[in-house]
Amino acid sequence: MDYKRVLTVQDISCFGQCSLAVASPVISACGVETCVLPSAVLSTHTMGFKGYTCRDLTQDMRDIVKHWDSQNINFDAVYSGYLSDARQIETVKQIFSTRLRGGGLRIVDPVMGDFGRMYPAFDGAFADAMRGLCATADVILPNVTEACLLAGEEYRERYDESFVKGLAASLSALGAKQIVLTGVSYNDDSTGVAVFSQSGDFYYSHRRINRSCHGTGDLFSSAFTGALMNGKSAERAARIAADFVLDCIDSTPASHWYGVRFERCLPSLIEAVFVRDR
Ligand code: PXL
């Protein structure tokens, strides 16, 4: 397996164990060169903290990409997460079309909300722009809330397989090639990941921990990207990432409300990528 180079585009939340503070160590642990393009710098993430600061980096992103253009800096995959302004979506689209090596992957986590609600910084216009980015992606990684926002469906707490298949059909009609839907739960005891691609549908069901933990989406997408870059199929990468997130939540006491203690679970992720799942 050759040495891959991934660019991840998302914010720096200085405190809160999410976005780049998670993506960079997790993807690096998977043996992949990890380059970063920060979309914003926040004092904390936006869930549960009052009065957080946010420095938008839309113009810096453009300047950085312009410099990369001049240096011919390219990537094997680009994975975008939390973007702080709809104009940044245009920059990510531009990176997709100009800075990827042949066969390079466009991976979009359309970070916008959870549990049926949008995160504070977003609105309908942002969701419309994000729909356009997802249309250009090889893989999208929405949770059920984000899938509903993208598909223009009313969010539901309870649903069945046909609802989930309908969501996936809408997202694939947009143009996304593979859809990895997280937090898909058909009963109180289990949850899972549903993968939809040209090679068929796949559902990995696992134990559900009844606790909402912030940052698990970023952990999942980062581990998924790292596993994918090691040649795993989307199905295997989804399983590795789901098991890693479960392990991380198990390692996090309920009192640690703002994030997930993922650091000591990195060795088991490395083992899953390099030893167990060969
Ligand atoms: O984990 C997603 C995320 C990333 N970055 C910021 C956030 C959130 C979710 O709330 O607020 C700034």
Task: Please tell me about this protein's structure.
This protein is of the alpha/beta class and 278 residues long. The protein has one domain (5-274): UDP-N-acetylmuramoyl-L-alanine:D-glutamate ligase, CATH 3.40.1190.20. The protein is 40% helix and 24% strand. The chain has 9 helices and 11 strands. It has helices spanning 20-29, 58-71, 87-98, 124-134, 144-151, 161-174, 216-228, 234-250, 266-276, and strands at residues 5-15, 33-44, 54-56, 75-80, 100-108, 113-114, 117-118, 139-140, 178-181, 190-197, 200-207. The strands form 2 sheets. A 9-stranded mixed beta sheet has the order 3-2-1-4-5-8-9-10-11, with helices on both faces. Helix 1 runs parallel beside helix 7 (216-228), helix 5 (144-151) crosses helix 6 (161-174) and helix 7 (216-228) runs antiparallel to helix 8 (234-250). The mean pLDDT is 96. 3-hydroxy-5-(hydroxymethyl)-2-methylisonicotinaldehyde is lined by residues 11, 13, 18-19, 42, 45-47, 82, 111, 119, 215, 217-218.
What distinguishing features does this structure have?
278 residues, alpha/beta, UDP-N-acetylmuramoyl-L-alanine:D-glutamate ligase, 9-stranded mixed β-sheet, two-stranded antiparallel ribbon, 9 helices, 11 strands, globular, binds 3-hydroxy-5-(hydroxymethyl)-2-methylisonicotinaldehyde
